[in-house]
UniProtKB/TrEMBL annotation:
Gene source species: Stenotrophomonas koreensis
Main subcellular localisation: membrane
Transmembrane region(s): 78-98, 104-122, 134-153, 209-228, 235-253
Family per similarity comment: Belongs to the 4-toluene sulfonate uptake permease (TSUP) (TC 2.A.102) family.
Location of this chain's protein in the cell: Cell membrane
Pfam families: TauE (PF01925)
Source species, domain of life: Bacteria
One annotated Gene Ontology cellular component of this protein: plasma membrane
Membrane-topology descriptor: Multi-pass membrane protein
Protein name per the record: Probable membrane transporter protein
Length: 260
């Protein structure tokens, strides 16, 4: 085991801590952790790095979800239905990778992110206050549909999943940014577990680095969730807008690169 420990591990632990903190607050930890893995371990197969990223993230996401659930009121019925649908549909998304090139999806995702950014900026009170809706059959059906769509997307492509979840929980269930971020963690946890149901049996996890990174990710998640609950919806709104801008820049650059 010791000979498998890369000299890059200290750097990866810092990356995992930062990713866990950002992901706990507003999602998007994969934007830091996954590129860090690919940069530090370029000799490894991409599937191993993707599986290691999911393994590490699962523990941080679970920690953040648990901490939020103790302090934040979560609408459990629609959230659990969304998580169940996301878990099931993430398998479909993963299997669809071979049917449709991911490059075909990137421009659509870019447009959706720009629309989310514009909507959030123009609607100043968006996510500022809790305006919970009555959860009836229609709302539960929406939760299943949204969870299924997000789960499929996360299994197929992935970037921006947390941002989409936060936006949709505010838009359709009247949550504020803090409540939406907490609810998103439950759904994210389901999609991470679903992905690991494939990665772990296939042996696509580098435990020698994923296990210590998971510890660092959990430490980051504890810190990030504490800062989020202390800063409230105002802080998460600012982090959310910053993350969406980063996603737009990244998607725009990747789109231009694919067209070149």
């Amino acid at each position: 085991m010791l000979e498998l420990l890369p000299p890059e591990l200290p750097w990866l632990l810092v990356i995992a801590f930062l990713a866990g903190g950002i992901d706990a607050a507003v999602g998007g930890g994969g934007l830091i952790q996954l590129p860090g893995l690919f940069t530090a371990l370029p000799q490894q197969h991409p599937a191993l790095l993707l599986g290691s990223n999911k393994f590490t993230s699962m523990f941080g996401t679970a920690t953040a979800a648990w901490r939020y659930a103790r302090r934040i009121t979560i609408p459990w019925r629609p959230v659990l239905l969304a998580a169940t649908a996301a878990f099931a549909c993430s398998f479909g998304g993963a299997s669809a990778v071979s049917l449709l090139p991911r490059e075909a999806v990137r421009p659509l995702v870019l447009l959706l992110l720009i629309a989310i950014l514009a909507y959030t900026l123009l609607k100043k009170d968006f996510g500022a206050l809790q305006r919970p809706t009555v959860v009836g059959r229609r709302q539960l059906a929406i939760a299943v549909a949204l969870g299924g769509a997000i789960g499929f997307y996360d299994g197929f492509f992935g970037p921006g999943t947390g941002s989409f979840l936060i936006f949709l929980f505010i838009r359709f269930f009247g949550l504020d940014f803090l409540g939406a971020s907490a609810s998103a963690k439950i759904v994210n946890l389901a999609t991470n577990v679903a992905a690991l149901c494939w990665f772990v049996p296939a042996g696509q996890v580098l435990l020698a680095i994923a296990a210590p990174m998971a510890v660092a990710n959990v430490a980051g998640a504890v810190t990030g969730s504490w800062l989020a609950m202390r800063g409230g919806s105002g802080l998460i709104r600012r982090l959310f807008l910053g993350l969406v801008c980063v996603l737009i820049v990244r998607m725009g650059w990747d789109t231009l690169q694919s067209l070149a």
